[in-house]
Every structure is written in structure tokens, then in C-alpha cells.
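Protocol step 6 of 9: fold each sequence in the batch and record its C-alpha cells directly after the sequence line. For illustration, a two-sequence batch is reproduced in full.

Sequence one:
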Amino acid sequence: MSKAILTPANVLLAVLLFVAFAQMTAVYLLMQTPWTGINAVAGTLPDTVVVESIDADSPAAGKLPVGTVLTGVQTAQGLLKLAPLLYDFPPLSPATFAQLDAFYQRQATLHRAFTDPVGVTFVTVTGENVTLTPLLYTPLSALPLTFWLLSLINLISPLVGVLVWTYRPNQQASALLLMHGLFYYLFVMGGVCVVASEFYLPPEILQQVLLLQVAGIGIAAPLMVLILCYAPSPLVRGNWLLWLTLGGSALTIVNYHYHWFESPGHMYYSQHPLIYIGASIAIILQWRRTRQQPVERAALLVLATSFMLPSTLIVAIHVIPILFGKLPLVGNTIILMLFLLIAVGLAVGILRYRLFDIEFWWLKSLLWLLGGCLVAAIDLSVTALFQLSDSYALGISVIIAGFLYFPLRQWLLGKVIPAEKQNLQDFLPAFSSSLSDAVSQDTFEQRWLESLQQRFHPLHLEPLPETITHTQLSDNGLHLQIPSLDNTRSYRLSGKQRAARLFHKTDVKNTESLLTVARMASNASEMRQQAIMEERRRIMHDLHDSLGSKLLTLTHQLPDPNHKESAKQALMTLRDTIRLSLKTTPLRLEDHLADWRAEIAERADAAGVTLHWQQTGDASIHALTPKLVLEITQLLRETVSNALKHAAPAQLSLRFQMDASTLQILVGNDGRVSDPATWNAGTGLGSIQTRIARLGGDVRFELRDKPKLHNRVVLRIPLQSPQGL
């Protein structure tokens, strides 16, 4: 039943009703205040205010000219100063209950003056007295534009809370943000009542307004710390911390209203540095917990920046001056807007919207804050130490900050933000070099994968059957999906820099540039290979028609059997050369082992020799280039020819031994045996030695005595052939 009630529509309706009630309450309170129609600002002279404008049809219309400088109002007790105006004064700044009572008493005195039946008498700086009778109630139309604008703009906070809760209803942080938005709006409504006041607020109304502010910010501020305790990952289990925080906040609010006890330093603001410290501790703990979790780490950066940047400014320019008994550096309106930035930033962090951009803008925010704080700190120090005028102190501060800020900025850019180890320009030479020796589509694809690994060091690289046209980000930058060069599949990279970072838009742009270069190189290589193949086909066709036909004629016409066999071998070599030269992809070793066995078996059978064939190792894992296959074929033919021609054996044995990187061929025969040291290096032996050297292998000629005396040739051929094969 509760789930049916808490639907997005019902929650939105409840929030809008809450906002409307808070708005109507603020309007009602303001309309209960006396109205003169005078819009005043602080004057340049001490303790004065200046009439900036006067509303038409107001009690002051025609009685006070615009620009009049007022010193106060005349009362039975004497001159009562109007400065500081309430809208420009922090109403929560009284540090003790005695100061707060005095603040209320001053508002009560002003209220008696403005509600005097005979009217209120304004005293100008020239000593002139101007008496007018204010209206006892402020018309709705007289409420200033600032009131409506601030109410409307700060409506963003509760609406953002509803939006986040709608998208993440089961996440505790989203519920806390919704609560934060509601209580923050209470604080805003109290604040805009102060900002919209004319000269003062009646004490009973001011007391209600301040209670709204204390209740609103007293709960909204700790809720921000709680959000950091539950997002991006929970630091505590259960709701005990929530109830403890709400209980402490309620105690603070009740204490402020009933004046039970005063906290050291300031009865209200002394708790705000503690909230700031608590949030900082939560951020540090979250930072440690989100190690090797790039999405959570990016969300934390959003949350931390959203809280720390405005909060640091609020503490620095508003809270700290009040704690030291000074007026804040900015007015109430700016403080309200800074609090609004916190709510929006927290929403982005919880929703994890565009987290892949965080690494760029969070440092810009940090540098902006650092630069401003550095100039302000140096300016205050120079002014205090050397007693210089404001202009000289500011100029010197800017110069000193320039020498300190820019080196520090460069250090932060290099250390705080983990930049790419290589920019795109530095990576291009190695990338181009890796593609330069690729000759086939498969090789280009393999080089492309190797380049992606080298560029991003992903935690996982997974091929996908899905085809895409452009590089895409997914899961807030956790994944980067990249097309293959031939666009028949795609690859998903997960966890940039071993899951230390997120992919971002710059990675998409750079990858698209690399993809374009790789495809251009692949297409150019394919066109070059096609041109080479066309020329090779033409040459092979000419060889087959001319030299091939002549060799075929010789195999039939030569009378000498040896010559006929040589012509036949030459014809077979020519045909193999033509066939293999037209191949562009690697060939399977196991297929050619079968071809070699069939050919050698046929020759052995024709010579009346028994063939013994053995294979050890897995031939299916090896792929050979066409040129390597042709070279091994020629080596086998020449070795077998030498054995059959010169040794006249009864048995011929061939054993192929294969491991991961080497092919070893042992060719033995039991014919006429002699010591290899006595052999003359004729054409056959020289050809074998030349070919094996070209392959990067070696050859041994052995005289063996087991199982009986025989000669053996050992060919060792690396399967990872040298460049150029």
C-alpha cells in the first residue's frame, strides 16, 4: 500500500503543495508588516541609508525625493538609526542569546516607531524631519521583485530532489536529497522574507522567520553530509546515522528557540565548521573506498566538488567573519544562490549524469577556488603586515599570487588529474609504425587491437558481434565501444588505465581519428596488394604459358631418365611457385604436411624405396606464409632428391618434430653411407644451405650408427620467420 502511495506523481504533488504552503506563509508574513513604499540602500556615509526609489501611490510618494540621505527615525527616546538595513544584515549573526534579544528589541523599537498613530518621522542628513503614515499592511503588489525571483529560482532545489528520487527511488541518497530540498526551501523562504523587508520586520514575525531559517538549514546542512556518507557507496549500514543526525538537528533548533544553553563561540554558527569537517572526512573515506572503481570515483568527484566549492566559499565569506564578530563579506542573496549550487551538484552526482566530463570541469572549479582564495589571503596578509592602502595591497597580491598560482596550477594539472601518458601526437609515430608492416586484413585488425591496448590499457577488451559506425561511450564512461577496421564487429573496452579512470569524449574523438588513419592505411595496403596480385597473376600466367609448356614438353621428349626427372621437378616447382604466389593469407601447416607426404610417397614408390613417415607435435596451431611453404617444399625436394639419387637407399625416413616456434625435419636413408665431412659441396648441398640460411634456420649432415649405420640430414626451421619471408 505504501509503495502505491509513493508514486512519482503523488510525491511531485506533495512537494508542490509543500512549496505552495511555504510560499503562501512567506507572503502572509510579509503582508503583515507596515509599508512606506521607500526602497532604501546603505549610504556611503556611516550609519546612513539612501532613498533609491519610491513606489507610486505609496505613503512616501511626494514626501521624500529620491536620493535623500536618511540618518534614522525620531522616537521619544531620541534618534533611532535605520542602518544597517535588515535585508542587508545576517539575522542569524547574533552570537549569544543576549545579543539576539537585543536584536529583537531593536526591531520592536522600529516597529513601534513605524506603527505610531501620528506617523513615523524620518530625519535626513541635513537635519530635516519628514513625517508620513505607513500602511499597517503591505499590499501584495508591493512585494519586491527580488522576493518572487528568489522564490522561483530556489524552487529548483525541491524539484531537483523530486527528479532524482523519481529516477532513483530505491537509493537512500536520493531520498536524502529530496528531504534536503524541502528543508532548504524552508530556509530560503525565511531568507527571502528578510531580503524582501523594507526597513525591519516586526519582532514576532522575525522570530517566526528565523525559526524557519534555523529549522531549514539546521536539517538541510547535515543531510548534505549524510548524502556523502551514502553516495557513491554507503559508509554505514542502516538508518541509525540518519536518526542520530535528525535528533541532533532537532535539539539544536529547539535550543535556538527556547534559549536553553549557548554553545562556545557562537550559539548557532559554531556547528557549521563541524559540519564542514564531517563532510570532508566522509569524502576522504569515500575516496579510499572507491579506489579502482572509476564510475564511483567520478561520482564522488561530482559530489565532493558540488559540496566543497560552494561550502568553502560560504564558510570563508559568511560563517568565519560572523564567528570573529565581523559582518559577512557578501549579502544574504548571494549566500542563498551558493546553497542552490550544492543541491544541483549533488543531484548530478547521484544521477551520475555525464560523469565522463568530470575530470575536466572539477579541476577547473578547484583552480578557480584556489586562485580566488590565494589572492584574498595574500591581500589580507599584505594589508595587515605592511599597513598599505587597498589599491597597493591588491596590486601586490595579484603579482605574488601570479608567481605562486601558475606553477601550482601546472603541478596540479600534472599530478592531481591523471593525464594521458601520451597525447595523440606523441602516440601517432608508434601507431603508424605498428601498421607499417601489416600486409593482410587480419594483420591490420590485430595491429588495431594491439594499439587500443597500448593506448588505453583497458581492464578488459571484449569482441562483440554488434556492428557500429562510430565510437561510443556507455555506462557513464566505464565502457568504450569501438568499430573494427572492416566494420564487421566491434570491441568493448572496459576500465581505462586498468580501471583507474573513465573514458571521456576526448577518447572518443581521438579514437575516431586513429580509426580513420588505420582504415586509410588498411585500404591503401589492400589496394597495393591487389595491384601486386594483378601483376603477379600476369607474370605467373606468362610463365605458365611459356616456360611451363616447354618444361612439360621436355618431360616427354628427354631420353635420359635423370634429365626427365629434373625437368619434372622443375615443372612441379614452377607450378608450386605460381600457386603459392597467388596466396595472400597464411597457410595451415597440417594441410601441407599431407601434400608433402603424398608427393614424397609417390617419388619413393617410383624409386622402389620404402617410406617411413613420423610426426610429433601439434601442426594445427601453426600458420605459414606462402613463401615459407614454398621454401620448405624446395628443401624437402632437394633433400629427398639427393638421398634417392646419390645413396640409392632401400628405406627413406622422414620425421617432423614441431613445438611452439620451431619445425625440425629429419631425413634419413640406409643407402650408400659416407662421412659428410668428405662430401663435395655441389649444387644440391649449396642450395640447401642457402635456403635454410635465408629462413633463419640451420642444417646438419650426420653419420649415425643406430639402429644401423646411415646418413641423416637435420633441418631446423623457425616458424616465426624473419622479416621479408
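Sequence two, same batch, same settings:
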Amino acid sequence: MAVSRRWRWLGVILAVLAIGVASMPLWLTLPVPPQALVIDQARFLEAGLAPQQVDLPHAQGSRHVQGRYRMDFELAQAPAQPLYLFIPMFSYRAVVELDGDVVLDTGADSLVPGVMLGASALLRLSGGGLAAGRHTLDIQLQAPGIARGYLSALYVGTAQQLAPYHRLRVLVFEHTRMMVLACQLLLLVATLMVWMYRPREFLYGWLFLLLGVSTASYAGLLADIVPDVFDWLPYAFTISMSSVFILHVIALEINGATPPFWLRACVAAVPGACLLAMASGMVPAGALMIGVVTPIMVVSPLITVAISAWGALVKKVQEAWLLLLPLCFFSLATLHDGAIVAGMLDGPVFLSLYYRQLLIMAIAAILMRRLGLSLTGLDGANAHLKETLAEREAELYRLYEEERGEAARRVRSEERHRLTEDLHDGLSGHLASIIALAERGHATGIERTAREALDDLRLVIHSLDIGDRELMAALSGLRERLEPRLRRLGVNLEWSMARLPEISGVTPAHALNTLRIVQEAVTNALRHGPASHIAVRGDTGPQGVALITVDNDGAPYADAGECGVGLQNMRRRAAFLGGTLRVEALAAGTRVTLTLPPRLSGDEADACPEGS
């Protein structure tokens, strides 16, 4: 509670400081040189009227008066240093004469830019110094017709006494104006870039339009390159009048209300009608400026204040509070400027130039706040998505591990099933034969059958170590087991696998079925031959298929065209491998050809068909 109260007081203090700083143009007066000679009285000479004594500062009684001020000052002795005349503020064009000689004509340098802020001047009174005695200063002011001419008190002194105060006014009246314009142009470009990437945010478009049309009020800065720019100033100010209608639209948008169509149409319709009236000559430009443009620009900000107050107090829109204070200052500034134009206040400084930038910065701050909140929400959504994605990845990884474990268990189960069937179909059959032969007392048959059982067991065990693309190694192992056996039987074995292509997708089941087909072909050659020569060759067939051929020189196989049990098993194994088996009876012997695809495939459940 104490911390919250402390922050609340800090916010109040900062708000008071902000109000004080923002209100400085309303009450702050610039310092004047204290040690210089002050000229604060003059004779005002107006055409057709008798001279009158006036106090300085003085504002002329009419907007179109070109009056002359005459002032006398006396020097007790010739000054040791050159003297300067400092005019803190005048409007709008000044021609200064000293003892009848023109020493300064500000011309367009002050006439056009000074329309909004007035001007300041520091001039040397003589090239070689002034003599002692009385001297006369004449200053003729030319007012543009928008506001009355104005002349402040004058100061005569040395450069050291006057120059710092003149530089301060140059900073306030000239450099500040350029800094404000630069800030506005920077905001203009930044708003345009944001609007280009977020075209659905209409507030950025309205702010860009506000910055663009309000820049027209700086047209006087073009006086150096466009000599007749003063004639175009009423048109420029009329264009900038669109800004007050845009402010209504922006205030409604910030409050969450939809601006009516007629209000949006006024942004272009009202200034357009005034421009058309000026261009056609139906209404004098000065009359339109005084009678239409100025009242609209003075009264409209008060309506915008009411809209923002409604949003802040009634609709409880927090952003409306951010806009309300700058709007109040801007409204006071426009009332101040309207009073100057109406002759109710003296002075040439139009404060709306300053407070308009404060208002634009407040609108930009609101939009940046919205953009920041949007990006913060986007960051939060991204963080949530990343967290959700991490959870999903962890879940997928867990499912993957479970599936991999299940696949490994399934493979082990299938291998056990295959091994069981292989042992059952091969070894168990041989053992049954051994038992039957033992019961009958056939010792020779027992030895032969036991050897066949051992070979079959070795074949099964050897196939377990075969991996992908290792079919050639499996066949080499079969050759090593067949050669001693055939040699003992006096059978010549010719073996050549050099031309056999590499086969992929090989599993232990594939290797075992291939070896059993070749072994069965050799066994049949011995059993049904009897063969004395067996040739096992590997070759490449059409489209890259692998061909394994087993030829023997025994008697032609009588059942080559039929489907015995052994041949059925061999063909079933070939089908499992994705290949085919062909048995041919030759003129002198039999040929068995196994055709395998470049990549093997098959169902492990059918890996070991019954029988051998």
C-alpha cells in the first residue's frame, strides 16, 4: 500500500512538472539586456493622422496600417565601442533609419516567416561610431494584413551587452521553428513507414494526413527561393485548416467511436470550398482568412477537447487522458492566436505553432503505445506458441520413443517367430528323420541326416548376422560350407558371383530364404542327379535385376514342370523376396534360376514357409 501511494505521488509530481513545462510559452517572457539604453517611447506617425506619443511595446490599431515610429536618444559623449540597436520583437517587416539614413531593411527575411512568430533584429548603428548628441531613429513597419504590426521596446548598447539576448531570440524564433519542422517531418516519414506495414490501422493514416496538411503552414520558409510566396500564404493556411477536422476524427477513433461520413468529408470539402472561393475571386482571401479560416481553427480544437473529455470521463478510455492535456493547451494556444488576429491581444507570437507539435507528439505516443501493446501481445502469443510447440515436440518425441521401442519389440518377436519356424521346419525335420533311422538301425542314413541338420542349423545361425547389402557375404558363407561336402562326394563346384549386382533392403529373413533356395537347388541336384558338376553363377538381368543360376549335369529334373512340395517352398520363398523362380530341364541336366529385384521386400510373417 505504501509503495503504491509513493508511486501515485510520484506520478502527480511528474504530471505537475509536465504541465508547468508545457505551459511555459503561455507565461514565460524572455529576458532583456539590463545595462543597455532603453527606448520605450516613440511618436507614432500614421498617414492622414496627427502624430501620437505611444509607449513601447506597441501594437498598431489596424491590420493594414504601415505606420512609422520615430524615437530620439541622446549620447553624452562619443562611444568608445561601436553601438548596436537591438529590436527584441517586431512584426512583420521593418525598415530602420538612423538620422535619415537606412541602416536595415529586413524585407522578406522577416515578412514571411515572421507572420507566425514575429522577428528579432540586431544591427550596427554606424560604421565608424556615433558622435555625441541627439540622434533620431525611424522604424517603418509593414503588416501583412493577418495580424497587427507590433514593435517592442528598443535597446542600444555594445555587442557584448546585446548579442546574448539576440541569440536567445534567434534560437526561440528561428531555430526552434526549424527544429519543430524537422521533428514534424521526421514524424511524417516514421508514420508513413508504419502505416505502409500496418495499412489496417487507420489512425496511422490520419496522423500521416495531419502531419502532411499542417506542414503547409511553414510555406513562408520558402521566401528565399519563391519571392511571391506571401501571395500563396492564404492558400497554405487554408490547406492546414484540414488539420482541425482530422483532429476530430482522430479523437473519435481513439475513443473507439466510428467517425461519421460527413466529418470525414469535411476534411477535404471545407478547405476545398474555401480554396475554390479564393481562386475564383468570389471572396477576397483576407476576408476568408479572417471570417472563415481563423474562426474554424480557433473553435474546432474546443470541440476536440469535448470529444476527448467524453472519452476520458464517460467512456473511461485511458488513451483519451493522454490526449486531453495537450488538447487543452492547444485550445488555449488557438484562443490566444485568435485574440491576436482579432486585436484583443498584443504581440505577434502565434503559440499554436508550438502546441500543435505537442499535440501531434501526444497522438504519436498513443499510436506507439498501441503498437507497443500489440507487439507485447504478439510476443506473448509467440512465447505461448513456443511453449506449446515445445510440449508438442516433447510429446512427439515420447511417442516416437514408444513407437521405436514397440517396433524393436515387434522386430524381435518376428525374428523369434522366424527363427522358431526355421528351426522347426529345418532342424526338427532332420531330427525326426534321425530318430526314425535310429529305430530302424540305419547308421549310414543317421550320419547323413545329422550332417544335413547341422548344416541347416549353421545356415539359420549365419543368416542372423546378415545386414543390408550383405547378400554377397551370405552367399560366400554358403559356398564355404558347400565345397567340403561336395568335395567328399566327388562333385565339382563352380562358383562365380562377380557379376551379381548389389542388392539393397536385405534382412536376415531375406538372406535365409535366398540361401535356402540355393541350398535346395544344390541338394536337389545331388538327390535327383546324381550330378557330378554343379555351377552357381550370379549375373545382372534386364533393368538391373539380379540373377542367381544353379546348373547341374545330372539327369533332367523330371518334375520341372510340376509343382512338388520342395519346388512350392522354393517358389514361395522367391515370392517373399519379391522375385521369381524358374526351373528348366536341360539336354544334360537341370537349371534353376532365381530372379531378385534390386531392392528386396517382403512380409516377415511369411519369411519361413513350411517345409524345406
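Proceed to step 7 once all outputs are recorded. Observation for sequence two: The chain has three domains: 33-171, 198-381, 465-606.
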